[in-house]
Amino acid sequence: MSRWIEGGINIAMKVPTHQYAQTVAFYRDTLGLEPFTEKPGNVGFIHGPNRLWIDEVHGYSQAEVWLELFTPDFPRAAEQLGAAGVVRNDAIEDLGAGFRGGWFFNPAGIVHLVREADAW
What we know:
20% of the residues lie in helices and 38% in strands. By secondary structure, it is α+β, with helices and mostly antiparallel strands.
């Protein structure tokens, strides 16, 4: 059986404005994780083999964690996920025209970005 989906390296923590500065300080100052700022306006930290992005989100009341999954063939993965009854909602965050990926939810409501490795 060929692997059609696998875990990605990116974890996004969507944090409400009223908790954002303290959350960034926690990972930077309290835990001492190595920061990266390769995308202007975004803060992230090296989190073992993963990259933890801390995204400020206006209008949220509590934080959410979003995960990334890679697939070599997004149309196939989307079809298989849909056939399994997995909910897709690309309206939650714009990925841009031509992006080879989409947003899906696990049964507990956790957001997963399923994408091809070179989708950006």
